[in-house]
Structure formats: C-alpha cells, structure tokens
Design goal:
- The protein is mainly alpha-helical and 437 residues long.
- The chain has three domains: 11-72; 91-175; 204-370, hpI Integrase, Chain A.
- It has 17 helices and ten strands.
- The protein has helices at residues 45-49, 56-72, 91-103, 111-122, 141-149, 156-175, 204-213, 216-228, 232-236, 272-281, 309-319, 337-346, 351-363, 368-375, 380-387, 389-414, 423-434, and strands at residues 11-12, 30-33, 41-44, 125-126, 129-130, 243-244, 249-252, 266-269, 326-329, 332-335.
- It has a three-stranded antiparallel β-sheet with strand order 1-2-3. It has a three-stranded antiparallel β-sheet with strand order 6-7-8, with no helix packed on it. The chain has a two-stranded antiparallel ribbon with strand order 4-5.
- A hairpin with a 4-residue loop joins strand 6 and strand 7.
- Helix 8 runs antiparallel to helix 10 and helix 14 packs across helix 15.
- It starts with 10 loop residues before the first strand and ends with a helix.
Length: 437
Amino acid sequence: MGEKRHVNRGVEKRCNCKRSSWSQCLHPWTFRYKPRGRRRQQLSLDRLLGYHVDSRTDADKHANRIRTEMDAGTFKKDSVASPIVADGVTLDQVITPFIDRVYKSRNVESWRNAASMLQHLSGFLVNDGRLGDWAICAITEDVLERFFESLSAFAAGTRTRYSQLLKRLFLWAKRKGYITESPISDESTIKGEKGAERRRRIYPDEEDRLLAVAPRRLQSVIIAALESLGRLGELLALKWEDVHLNQRTLLIAAQEVGARKTKKGRTIPISDRLAAVLEMRRTNVAGEVCEGTAYVFGDEIGAPTKSIKKAWETCVLKAHGYAPEWSRRGNSNALSSQSRAQLRMIDVHFHDLRHEGGIRLLEKGWQLHWLQKMYGHATLAQTAKYLHADECVLPDVMRQFEQKSAKRGAVVVQTRRIDRPPLHHAKRMETCKASPH
C-alpha cells in the first residue's frame, strides 16, 4: 500500500499542533488557492471573516465560497479586517499558541524560560482565582501592574525580561485578534529597569588561583574568554574549521535564529597566549589532529560541551578557599544553600572574564573602535558604556596631558629670550648722559 496522503483542498493550520487536534487548537485556519491565470492567494480565515473559525466544516464552507468568488473574479479582500474578539478565550489558552508560534516554531532556545515566566503569570492569584482562568480580554492594566509589583524581590534584569515578555504577549494577542487593544499603555509602570552595571574586576592573583584549581578544559575556556573577549556560548560553539592558526585569526559565527546577541559573525585575532592553548588542544587523546567539525572546547572526541556551570562554580569556590558542598535535588546534585551563599558573596561571573579582557586591552592603549570589533557590538557607544571607558581612559588622558604640559613648559623656559635694547641704542644713551645739555 502506498503512503496515506492528506487532502486539505487548501485549508490547513500552519502550527506545530498535531493534525488530529486542529479542531481544538486556537490557531487560525489558513486558505491557499491559485486562481487560473492569477497569483496564488494565502489568507487567514479569522482575519478575513472577523471572527475565529472553530471547526473544519466551517472552514471548508468558507473556503469553497471564496474559491468560487476567486474563479468568477468577484472576490474582494478588505484592506482592513474587522477585529476578532474571542471573549471566551482564557489567558492559559493563549499562552500555549504564543509559545509555540513565537518561540518554538522559530527555534528560539529561550522558550523554556518564557514558558516558565508565563506560567508564573498564569498562577498569579487575583480575587482568590488564578489569572490564567480569566478571559484574556478581561485582563486590565491594573491587574498586570499588581503582578509586576509582586516581582519586586526579583533582580532588575529579570523584571526587565518580564516586562518585555508581557508586552510581547499582549501585542501578539492583539495582532491575532484575541483582544482589540493591549492593556499595557505607554504610561504603565510595567517598564524595564536598568540594573546596576557590573564593575567586577578579575585581578592577576585571582586569575592565577582560578587557573590553578580549574580542570584542563575549563582552564582553556577561561584563557580564551580573557584573550578573545568571546561570550561563553560563542566559545563552546567554536569549531576547528573556524580557527586559522596560520593567519592567527578565528571566526566567531553568528548564532542560530532567535539569538539577539550575535546576529553577524566576526573575525578575532589570536594572541600568543591563546595560540598556545589552541595548539595544545589541536590534537586529541590519540595524538591525531582534530577534524574541522570537532568542537574546540568539546570533550575528548570533539563533541560539544553543553554547560560548564558546575565546573565553574566549583572552581570559583575552591579558588577563594571554600570547599563546595552538594545536596541531592531531584535527579541531579546542586550546591547547598551555604555554598550558594558563599558563591554570591564572592560575586564573580564567567561573563566578567570577557569584561576584564577588554579592560586590560583598553589599559594597554587599544582604541575603542578596535574593541568594538572584538566584542561584536553594534555601536561604539555600546562598547564605551560596557567598558566604562570614561573611568578607565580619563585618568590616563589627564596624566598624558600633564606630562606634555610639563615638557612644553620646560621648553618655553629654556628658549625664553630676554629683551635687551640694541647696542647702538645703548651707546646713544651714554652719549646723551655725557653731554652738558
């Protein structure tokens, strides 16, 4: 028997839901048809009709009518669709297609974080009831502001991510017709916050202690972060085909779709210190040169390293004189509350290595536009703000200015001329004094 084929007659749903659940999911039906001698048309039935079409039977009925009108040349698509208001659709019912279509379908790796944050929103209690059970069109700005106020104990960066996610959710719901207007206005208190800018330095003695207790692979990643100014994700994704030791350059490729940090690839120069590390890792345990598709900072066989979190936290604690303690949580081990408190007190992040590497180059005289290329920043102002360039550069500028001023002043003193009257003028004065008149 041949493979079973599904005949849609141009009516389908463009979502990740199973075909058998199309009648239950909230995604709109899409109608595709190409009239003879004309361009192919693809229409959203919900947007075209002004309301949500639930069943496949209704979708086929409207599709047949539209198909007949297209063949007859009488079909006219309205330029502005009427609003679609789904009064009975709850917040929980909207969250699922939002995550599927905005995050999962675009391969955005942070979809789990977004789903967890929206689950927190759904479980927020309002009048002894879950907000997720409310009709989405009944949710007001006041309710959302109360939820945002409940996040006061969270870090500023986390609150900013919540505010961005809430605005994106309700704008998407408006675009899809679940609500007529977003409840979050421009004057709302649901706004991102600017967290405290990190100024944590990694001093040479602290770097030596980190490298002394770190495993060999983590040592290489630490040095690479300091020398290349790369992000952790960029370093772990680096392959040998992107490393050119002869030209002393490596290519940091753009990340996958959905990444907001590196939209474009960039070429990074390889320092002597980093070159020594790469030469050491160029051969595997069998003494053979690694293949181009192998990961530079992968395991013994060149497979990618998913995370260095546990190794990094252990390294930081040991470097500062603490013995890490682990406790069993579910199916994995996690740091105990005491070790976690010690880690917060030390307050050193892996990303601080990227910041420290740029500060060191700036102190050695590197120009900001060079560092901008190294970091992959979009603007020079972003690099200056990231490195606190004013604080690092202005003292050196003042010192250089004073040195130049001192030299200039010394030259002025040495070359200063003393104004004296001409010799013939002096003789004339003596003659005048000797005259009886």
